[in-house]
Design goal:
With 338 residues, the chain is of the alpha/beta class. Helices cover 34% and strands 23% of the residues. Helix 4 packs parallel to helix 5 (104-117), helix 5 packs antiparallel against helix 11 and helix 9 (179-190) crosses helix 11 (309-326).
């Protein structure tokens, strides 16, 4: 029996996720079985566009149904915790868009619940499954960069006026939206938790960070410097430096189509095409995280070795630290979670 996906919300990222999935030539044993939205008419329209057989007018109805095995949650950030909790409590595996939650307390609560229920849970950091990332990892493991010393990441887009980034009530924050890609890259390279996190940033009138510079210090003198900008476009690439040379994930580093190897050669990783539009750059790459989730569920794994829950916990703690240092506070920060 194929793994049956349920799509939670008819948001832009959900459109891209389903489009990437449906247009991929080798989806293996998985199907998009249902979609749910608070406005059933939007879910119906979404289902018609993507040929999805089942439509739900509430998330609770989908969570309680027998029609899906795993939920993909693409809601706004403040809804991630409650929606993920709802589906886990009803026995469904979950892939939830990044950031997994508003803070590390919520993340730990969901991790505890998933482990108690013996269900698969993953934060949808799709970058981890990009072919270029895997190629970089192989180069590092082969020792071609020598001993790793330094990571530099720049990620900036002029999106500070978009509500989901600029409004605190919507979970707005440069470090939560753009910055998570930089934080996860540093963790992807160095693996262990930083010894120290230092951050400076600028806030908008709503108390949301628009610009952040983060320095992460790791054991052995290793360091990562991350520049996050929601008001200007930066050269959005990531570079790893070792004692034997450097390698770069090229723009857009969050899901690239090329990398520069330590010997200077450039390797291309073209994405598959689609007849339907995408809302965001290189969204065809979203299929790779879907394939990973399907593989893990079929093999009985409760988390992905490429995007383990321990990394989500560490990343959320780093986001908490950056927010504290630059002065971004959410309502959820003063609450406790089981």
């Amino acid at each position: 029996m194929p793994v049956r996906w349920g799509i939670v919300t008819a948001a832009k990222i959900c459109h891209d996720f389903v489009n990437a999935f449906n247009s991929y030539p080798a989806k293996k044993d998985a199907v998009i079985a249902a979609v749910a939205a608070r406005d059933k008419s939007k879910a119906t329209e979404f289902a018609k566009l993507h040929n999805i057989p089942k439509v739900f007018g509430s998330y609770k109805e989908m969570a309680e149904s027998k029609d899906i095995d795993v939920a993909y949650i693409g809601s706004l950030n403040p809804q991630h915790y409650e929606l993920t909790k709802l589906f886990l409590e009803n026995g469904k595996h979950v892939l939830c868009e990044k950031p997994l939650c508003m803070n590390s307390k919520q993340v730990q609560s969901l991790v505890n619940l998933a482990r108690k229920k013996k269900l698969f849970l993953m934060e949808a950091i799709w970058s981890r499954f990009a072919p270029a990332y895997i190629a970089l990892e192989k180069e590092i493991q082969a020792g071609k960069l020598g001993e790793l010393q330094y990571v530099e990441v720049n990620y900036g887009l002029p999106i500070s006026e978009i509500a989901r980034l600029s409004k605190k009530e919507l979970g707005g924050s440069a470090i939560m939206d753009l910055g998570i890609y930089a934080l996860q890259f540093a963790q992807y390279i160095f693996k262990d938790e930083p010894l120290k996190c230092t951050a400076v940033g600028n806030l908008n009138d709503d108390g949301v960070d628009e610009v952040d510079t983060v320095i992460l210090e790791y054991s052995g003198g290793r360091r990562a410097v991350l520049n996050i900008h929601a008001k200007a476009r930066l050269w959005n690439k990531a570079t790893v430096y070792g004692t034997a040379g450097r390698a770069s994930i090229e723009e857009p580093f969050h899901f690239p189509e090329s990398m520069v190897h330590v010997d200077g050669t450039v390797e291309k990783f073209p994405l598959h095409s689609s007849k339907i539009y995408y809302n965001f750059d290189n969204s065809a790459g979203l299929v790779y995280e879907a394939l990973e989730v399907t593989r893990c569920i079929q093999q009985g794994l409760l988390e992905s070795p490429r995007m383990p829950l321990s990394d989500s916990i560490t990343i959320s703690k780093l986001q908490d630290s950056v927010r504290r240092q630059v002065g971004v506070v959410y309502d959820a920060d003063s609450q406790e979670f089981p």
